[in-house]
Amino acid sequence: MKKRRWLSNTYIGLVFAFLYLPIGVLIAYSFNESKSRAVFTGFTFDWYERLFHNEVIIQSLINTLIIAIVSSLIATIIGTAAAVGINSMNKWMKSAMMNLTYLPIINPEIVTGVSMMLLFVFLKLEFGFTTLIIAHITFGLPYVILNVLPKLRQMDNFVYEAALDLGCTPFLAFRKVIFPEILPGIISGMLMAFTFSLDDFVISYFTTGPTSQTLPVTIFSMTRRKVSPEINALSTIIFIVVLATLLIVNFKDLKKEKKVRQEVSL
Q1: Whole-angstrom Cα distance, residue 199 to residue 47?
Q2: Which of 75, 158, 194, 253 would you call most buried, defined as having the most Cβ atoms within 10 angstroms of its Cβ?
Q3: CATH code, 195
Q4: Within a domain: residue 163?
């Protein structure tokens, strides 16, 4: 029994070391006084200071946030409307629309990126914020639809019909009856669209312009020459922000679960 537990703990330790040891090395070398990636010569915050004075990275970060916010909001609005429409279709139409919804997700990103680039060239659109936002809306839509549809299926349609019978207009019935029920799905879909927009590289690479590069594209352009310690510093900040967000969300969930248990025990 003890031997099995030891083997299990060793296996888990190796998995976590494989996952997080490279991140630990990256964080350590973000404080390296030298540009060397092999020798740690001393501790410094100079690379973080240079990072915050690097106009290219700061502008790319601003571009990324603007594109992610705008595209996720538009994708949420269109995706929610599409989910409501799909849910009201007959069986065969719903099946066909669901297959079309899954297609952008299972389709390789490079195919989507190249096809979007060719479409924009055909339409003679200037590559920049407009093309990036359209591309990000396109691949964000399926995630919103697939998050909202399950909430619609869980609903009792008779409640909506009852609201109409009691004198509500279709819009008022949607706002008062349907919207509160599907709101968790809308929020989940919007967060997924926002996250994938922040993280996207391949599609952004093919649809970006010279003055509207996103952060992943800028980082890739910088690493093609040489990995600067500024990139290590930027990666460290991103990792800390993601880790802090994850810890806050988990802490809130644990607190909520504890409160529910206390209420049940009473």
Answers
A1: 23
A2: 75
A3: 1.10.3720.10
A4: yes
pLDDT tens digit sequence for 165-222? 777 787 888 888 888 888 888 988 998 899 889 888 899 999 988 878 888 888 888 7
Do 36 and 167 reside in the same domain of the chain? no
Q: What residues have CB less than 8 Å from 173, skipping those under 6 apart? A: 160, 163, 164
Structure tokens at 234: 């930027």
Q: Are residues 31 and 76 in the same domain?
A: no
Domain range enclosing 10: 2-47
For the beta carbon of residue 264, count every other beta carbon within 10 angstroms: 7
Which of 212, 197, 204 is closest to 129 using CA atoms?
212
